Protein backbone atom coordinates (compact mmCIF):
# COMPACT_ATOMS: atom_id res chain seq x y z
CA UNK A 1 0.00 0.00 0.00
CA UNK A 2 2.82 2.31 0.90
CA UNK A 3 4.61 1.58 -2.38
CA UNK A 4 1.43 2.26 -4.36
CA UNK A 5 0.95 5.63 -2.63
CA UNK A 6 4.61 6.52 -3.21
CA UNK A 7 4.43 5.65 -6.93
CA UNK A 8 1.20 7.63 -7.32
CA UNK A 9 2.82 10.70 -5.76
CA UNK A 10 5.89 10.29 -7.96
CA UNK A 11 3.73 9.93 -11.06
CA UNK A 12 1.73 13.03 -10.10
CA UNK A 13 4.91 15.01 -9.49
CA UNK A 14 6.37 13.95 -12.84
CA UNK A 15 3.16 14.88 -14.67
CA UNK A 16 3.09 18.26 -12.96
CA UNK A 17 6.71 18.96 -13.90
CA UNK A 18 6.12 17.82 -17.45
CA UNK A 19 3.13 20.13 -17.84
CA UNK A 20 5.06 23.03 -16.32
CA UNK A 21 7.98 22.53 -18.70
CA UNK A 22 5.89 22.35 -21.87
CA UNK A 23 6.66 25.27 -24.12
CA UNK A 24 3.77 27.65 -24.16
CA UNK A 25 3.31 29.57 -27.39
CA UNK A 26 2.33 33.18 -26.88
CA UNK A 27 -0.87 34.41 -28.42
CA UNK A 28 -0.35 37.43 -30.61
CA UNK A 29 -3.21 39.80 -31.13
CA UNK A 30 -3.08 42.88 -33.23
CA UNK A 31 -5.27 45.71 -34.31
CA UNK A 32 -6.94 45.61 -37.70
CA UNK A 33 -7.17 48.98 -39.31
CA UNK A 34 -10.23 49.98 -41.25
CA UNK A 35 -8.33 50.54 -44.50
CA UNK A 36 -7.15 46.92 -44.68
CA UNK A 37 -10.68 45.65 -44.06
CA UNK A 38 -12.08 47.96 -46.74
CA UNK A 39 -9.36 46.87 -49.18
CA UNK A 40 -10.15 43.20 -48.55
CA UNK A 41 -13.85 43.82 -49.14
CA UNK A 42 -13.01 45.79 -52.29
CA UNK A 43 -10.96 42.92 -53.72
CA UNK A 44 -13.86 40.53 -53.11
CA UNK A 45 -16.15 42.89 -55.01
CA UNK A 46 -13.64 43.18 -57.86
CA UNK A 47 -13.32 39.40 -58.06
CA UNK A 48 -17.13 39.08 -58.22
CA UNK A 49 -17.24 41.70 -60.99
CA UNK A 50 -14.58 39.79 -62.95
CA UNK A 51 -16.52 36.55 -62.58
CA UNK A 52 -19.66 38.33 -63.76
CA UNK A 53 -17.82 39.60 -66.84
CA UNK A 54 -16.59 36.08 -67.60
CA UNK A 55 -20.16 34.79 -67.43
CA UNK A 56 -21.20 37.01 -70.35
CA UNK A 57 -22.23 34.95 -73.39
CA UNK A 58 -19.94 36.88 -75.74
CA UNK A 59 -16.84 36.27 -73.62
CA UNK A 60 -17.69 32.62 -73.06
CA UNK A 61 -18.16 32.04 -76.78
CA UNK A 62 -14.81 33.74 -77.45
CA UNK A 63 -13.13 31.53 -74.84
CA UNK A 64 -14.64 28.42 -76.45
CA UNK A 65 -13.41 29.59 -79.87
CA UNK A 66 -9.90 29.84 -78.40
CA UNK A 67 -10.18 26.36 -76.93
CA UNK A 68 -10.56 27.42 -73.29
CA UNK A 69 -13.23 25.76 -71.20
CA UNK A 70 -15.27 28.42 -69.32
CA UNK A 71 -15.08 26.28 -66.18
CA UNK A 72 -11.27 26.35 -66.40
CA UNK A 73 -11.43 30.13 -66.78
CA UNK A 74 -13.53 30.32 -63.61
CA UNK A 75 -11.01 28.19 -61.73
CA UNK A 76 -8.19 30.38 -63.03
CA UNK A 77 -9.92 33.56 -61.84
CA UNK A 78 -10.41 31.98 -58.43
CA UNK A 79 -6.65 31.33 -58.25
CA UNK A 80 -5.62 34.88 -59.13
CA UNK A 81 -4.03 36.89 -56.35
CA UNK A 82 -5.70 40.05 -55.10
CA UNK A 83 -3.21 42.23 -56.96
CA UNK A 84 -3.80 40.39 -60.21
CA UNK A 85 -7.57 40.77 -59.88
CA UNK A 86 -7.20 44.49 -59.23
CA UNK A 87 -4.84 44.94 -62.20
CA UNK A 88 -7.06 42.91 -64.53
CA UNK A 89 -10.15 44.88 -63.55
CA UNK A 90 -8.28 48.15 -64.01
CA UNK A 91 -7.30 47.13 -67.53
CA UNK A 92 -10.84 46.04 -68.31
CA UNK A 93 -12.23 49.34 -67.00
CA UNK A 94 -9.92 51.32 -69.30
CA UNK A 95 -11.38 49.68 -72.39
CA UNK A 96 -14.24 51.44 -74.18
CA UNK A 97 -17.70 50.22 -73.29
CA UNK A 98 -19.02 47.56 -75.64
CA UNK A 99 -15.83 47.38 -77.68
CA UNK A 100 -13.48 45.63 -75.31
CA UNK A 101 -14.73 42.05 -75.20
CA UNK A 102 -11.98 40.79 -77.46
CA UNK A 103 -9.30 42.58 -75.46
CA UNK A 104 -10.73 41.20 -72.23
CA UNK A 105 -10.60 37.70 -73.64
CA UNK A 106 -7.04 38.26 -74.82
CA UNK A 107 -5.99 39.45 -71.37
CA UNK A 108 -7.55 36.41 -69.75
CA UNK A 109 -5.94 34.20 -72.40
CA UNK A 110 -2.53 35.77 -71.69
CA UNK A 111 -2.97 35.15 -67.97
CA UNK A 112 -3.76 31.51 -68.78
CA UNK A 113 -0.70 31.16 -71.02
CA UNK A 114 1.58 32.76 -68.41
CA UNK A 115 0.35 30.45 -65.65
CA UNK A 116 0.81 27.50 -68.01
CA UNK A 117 4.37 28.63 -68.79
CA UNK A 118 5.10 28.88 -65.07
CA UNK A 119 3.85 25.33 -64.59
CA UNK A 120 1.00 26.28 -62.26
CA UNK A 121 -1.65 24.85 -64.57
CA UNK A 122 -1.75 22.64 -67.64
CA UNK A 123 -4.53 23.81 -69.97
CA UNK A 124 -2.83 24.38 -73.31
CA UNK A 125 -0.83 21.60 -74.98
CA UNK A 126 1.28 24.07 -76.98
CA UNK A 127 2.75 25.68 -73.83
CA UNK A 128 5.61 23.86 -72.15
CA UNK A 129 6.33 24.70 -68.51
CA UNK A 130 9.67 26.29 -67.69
CA UNK A 131 10.39 23.83 -64.86
Give an overview in words:
By secondary structure, the chain is mainly alpha-helical. The protein has helices spanning 2-21, 34-54, 57-65, 70-79, 82-94, 101-117. The radius of gyration is 28 Å and the shape is elongated.
Number of strands: 0
Q: Main sheet, how many strands, which sense, barrel?
A: none
Helix content: 55-70%
Shape: elongated
Oligomer: single chain
Low-confidence stretches: none
Helix vs. strand class: mainly alpha
How many helices?
6
Order of helices and strands: HHHHHH
Structural topology:
Elements: H1 2-21, H2 34-54, H3 57-65, H4 70-79, H5 82-94, H6 101-117
Key descriptive features of the protein:
131 residues; mainly alpha; 6 helices; 0% strand; elongated
Describe the structure concisely.
This protein is mainly alpha-helical and 131 residues long. The protein has helices at 2-21, 34-54, 57-65, 70-79, 82-94, 101-117.
Amino acid sequence: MRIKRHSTRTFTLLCTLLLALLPASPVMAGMLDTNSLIAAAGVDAERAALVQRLEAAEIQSALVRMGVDPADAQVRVDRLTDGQVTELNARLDQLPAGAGALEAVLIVFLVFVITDALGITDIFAFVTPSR
